[in-house]
């Protein structure tokens, strides 16, 4: 009898490695665009209020692309296959980024390619997580998704470094080139056995039916809870980090807080937090316990953020690092979403959930901007109080959502959702 492969060899399957690199490209592009938005628009001849209006246009179109693409690629993954999802996603993203690099003066062309790039990127994380949860032994799949998340988040660091070293056209060319290299590597990835068995042996089962999530109250509630537990991450990134220069001034932080540095500290924390959350969920054999622990840690770190009045910029950056560590539970967030549903709609759920959470950033920022100007007896609510309200609301909603989800560590995923 042949010896069983080692745990390390099982975990480092081609699907895990390629999935990690795919998510790396995903995060690379998201951070790259955040950093290049203003320099690229200035180079195209825009200035003043145009930098804000055109920047918001590009960001919103990329986000809309991710929302629509998440649905499209999720359905594709459940109907055609997980590997087809990953091939289509990275091919479209690569082509869009390379085309984006050739844009010089047309804001319309820039907008089109950001929408297409967002559409293409939408399938990366969910597709990779779905495939890995189905091919790895149920006792080990948490390690696989931890590797994907940890390596992927490091793409933010590389994106930030590249954006500072080359012009914005070249940065987009590099992103597209990385995608094409990944496309070649994906030739070594085999299709999920669970999916093939479903496709070949149960033709009567509805696959990739997005509307199934809304035709059953219990299933819909579970789907919404999966989305809501991810809100704190994008509240922190989209509000507390994105507006950290403004909030830090209101808190009288000693020293200048720069968005790029705040992002770097936050994502460094997310990298370590992602590894820790995935590792401990395996060690404790529980997703729920670790999720609640990290939500609690995030709450305390967020409280520290708003209690930094008068402190140094170094202290403020340290708190940002700690908040990033707390929301590193993103690793088990995407794993939980994939493990909650049957094989026939698993890719649809795993692909749409993270993109809907990203899309919720728009609502969070709008709430923050609205609350800032709400009148009070002393003037207006202001940036600190409005950010605190939005942050607290995201944490309360996440705790509520987590309380209603089942434990999925070691759960057998070879089943289907009834039509």
Distance between the termini: 42 Å
Give me the count of strands.
2
Average of per-residue pLDDT values = 89
Total domain modules: 2
Query: Could you name the CATH topology of the largest domain?
Result: Growth Hormone, Chain: A
Instruction: Work out the helix count.
Output: 19
> Radius of gyration in whole Å, from Cα?
21 Å
Approximately how much helix is present in the residues? over 70%
Oligomer: single chain
Strand content: under 5%
- Structural class by sheet pairing and helices: mainly alpha
CATH architecture of the largest domain: Up-down Bundle
Which word captures the global form? Answer: globular
Low-confidence stretches: none
Strand order of the largest sheet: 1-2
Q: What is the CATH C level class of the largest domain, in words?
A: Mainly Alpha
CATH superfamily label of the largest domain: MFS general substrate transporter like domains
Specify the biggest β-sheet. 2 strands, antiparallel
H and E order: HHHHHHHHHHHHHHHHHHEEH
Overview of this structure, please?
The protein folds into two domains: 1-189, Growth Hormone, Chain: A (Up-down Bundle); 212-419, MFS general substrate transporter like domains (Growth Hormone, Chain: A), CATH 1.20.1250.20. It has helices at 7-11, 14-43, 49-79, 82-101, 107-121, 124-135, 141-153, 155-165, 168-185, 193-201, 217-228, 231-241, 244-250, 259-283, 287-306, 313-326, 330-339, 346-372, 382-403, and strands at 375-376, 379-380. It has 419 residues and is an all-alpha fold. 74% of the residues lie in helices and 1% in strands.
């Amino acid at each position: 009898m042949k010896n069983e492969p080692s745990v390390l060899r099982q975990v480092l399957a081609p699907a895990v490695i390629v999935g990690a690199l795919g998510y790396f490209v995903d995060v690379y592009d998201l951070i790259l665009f955040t950093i290049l938005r203003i320099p690229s628009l200035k180079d195209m001849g825009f200035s003043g209020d145009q930098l804000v209006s055109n920047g918001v246009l590009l960001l919103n179109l990329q986000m809309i692309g991710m929302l629509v693409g998440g649905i499209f690629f999720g359905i594709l993954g459940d109907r055609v296959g997980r590997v087809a999802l990953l091939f289509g996603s990275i091919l479209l993203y690569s082509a869009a980024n390379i085309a984006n690099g050739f844009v010089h003066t047309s804001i319309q062309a820039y907008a089109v390619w950001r929408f297409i790039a967002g559409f293409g990127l939408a399938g990366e994380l969910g597709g990779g997580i779905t495939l890995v949860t189905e091919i790895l032994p149920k006792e080990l799949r948490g390690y696989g998704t931890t590797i994907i998340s940890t390596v992927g988040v490091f793409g933010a660091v590389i994106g930030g470094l590249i954006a500072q070293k080359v012009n914005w056209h070249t940065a987009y060319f590099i992103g597209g080139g990385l995608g094409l290299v990944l496309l070649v590597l994906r030739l070594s990835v085999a299709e999920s056995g669970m999916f093939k068995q479903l496709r070949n042996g149960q033709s009567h089962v509805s696959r990739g039916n997005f509307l199934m999530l809304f035709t059953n109250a219990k299933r819909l509630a579970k789907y919404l809870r999966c989305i809501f537990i991810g809100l704190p991450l994008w509240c922190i990134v989209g509000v507390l980090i994105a507006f950290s220069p403004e909030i830090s001034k209101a808190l009288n932080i000693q020293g200048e807080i720069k968005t790029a540095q705040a992002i770097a500290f936050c994502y460094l924390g997310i990298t370590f937090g992602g590894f820790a959350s995935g590792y401990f969920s395996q060690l404790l054999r529980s997703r729920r316990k670790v999720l609640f622990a990290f939500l609690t840690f995030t709450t305390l770190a967020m409280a520290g953020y708003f209690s930094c009045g008068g402190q140094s910029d170094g202290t403020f950056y340290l708190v940002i690092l700690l908040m990033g560590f707390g929301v590193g539970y993103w690793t088990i967030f995407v794993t939980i979403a994939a493990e909650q549903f049957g094989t026939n709609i698993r890719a649809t759920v795993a692909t749409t959930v993270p993109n809907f959470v990203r899309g919720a950033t728009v609502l969070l920022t709008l709430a923050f901007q609205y609350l800032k100007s709400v009148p009070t007896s002393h003037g207006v609510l202001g940036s600190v109080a409005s950010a605190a309200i939005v942050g607290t609301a995201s944490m309360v909603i996440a705790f509520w959502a987590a309380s209603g989800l089942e434990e999925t560590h070691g759960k057998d995923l070879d089943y289907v959702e009834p039509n």
